Predict the structure of Glutamine--fructose-6-phosphate aminotransferase [isomerizing].
Amino acid sequence: DKGEFRHYMLKEIYEQPKVIKATMEGRVTDSRVLEQALGTGAADLLANVRHVQIIACGTSYHAGMVARYWIEELAGIACSVEVASEYRYRKHVIQPDTLFLCISQSGETADTLAALRQAKQAGFRAALAICNVPGSSLVRESDLVIMTHAGPEIGVASTKAFTTQLVSLLIFTLALARHNGLSEAREADIVAALRQLPGQIDDALALDGKIAELSKAFMDKNHSLFLGRGAMYPVAMEGALKLKEISYIHAEAYPAGELKHGPLALVDSEMPVVTVAPNNELLEKLKSNLEEVRARGGELFVFADGDAELQEQPGIHVLQIPAVHAITAPIVYTLPLQLLSYHVAVLKGTDVDQPRNLAKSVTVE
Ligand code: F6R
């Protein structure tokens, strides 16, 4: 039931404060992650992990890409991320003491399951699943499970599953990092940031009207570029995937630093460039990338921290996002990009909940 909403996708976007809260429930206190909530024996397992291999497809893969930044930064443990359909068809090396982490909303994605089954033959320390469907094949075949409590996701384009995957991945990262030198103070700081998420996402949802306004600029465009740096790069990838899936506008994501190495040649007034720019240490670098785009006549849409001191000017649209913790910023900045793709699709009159050629669950390869 869509209730007051015109589409399931919009309803699911608006459910995010609630389902993020549900996903944290019973797993974090005011200052700590409750490791036992990850399953019996989780502490012993995590204490011995030396490498994390993440496998997923589509949006779930983007969640894994964000997690890599967290795992290497907070736990200091090497992490590899790969799409399941590539991993399963190549000769791969599994490092000793690898935790094999599959991320899947449905838990039935054929390639992800095949990668897990193959890796089992090769041997790893344990398999952890991050999944939204209890009793799914992925859940049944994994040693540890963190269920995302997103509830049923009807819209083919994944929204609330993604942000609850991110919350689960951050909780997992903190549990892992605790065995690898993360201080109690830093853990408490990040847990506090997690607990602020529902409120911050409400604030991001309040930008809906402004985003609907911005979306008009995309209606007659055929191409777009999404830029981000650090953990915001996978957020840009996810924003681009949403736009192409439901509005059928070609959207490509690039790490902002790669701009000069090719994509800048594409930039002209017909190529809107979307950038996610929280106020982190990479902001100054990102600003000079924006100048490069501006100098070529590209129209910029910047989602930025108010402190970033980016001014609205001809050709640069700035949407201020309330200040957020650097670690949880990828979760909050996902929201405006979901809303942008939604509004562009509505303006174009596409089938938002059932985009052409796509299925919700890809159980065949
Ligand atoms: C994108 C989308 C797909 C899925 C992908 C993996 O909006 O929904 O890219 O993310 O098919 O599906 P799961 O997570 O069920 O394995």
Notes: Strands lie at 51-56, 78-83, 98-104, 126-131, 144-147, 223-228, 250-255, 273-277, 300-305, 316-321.
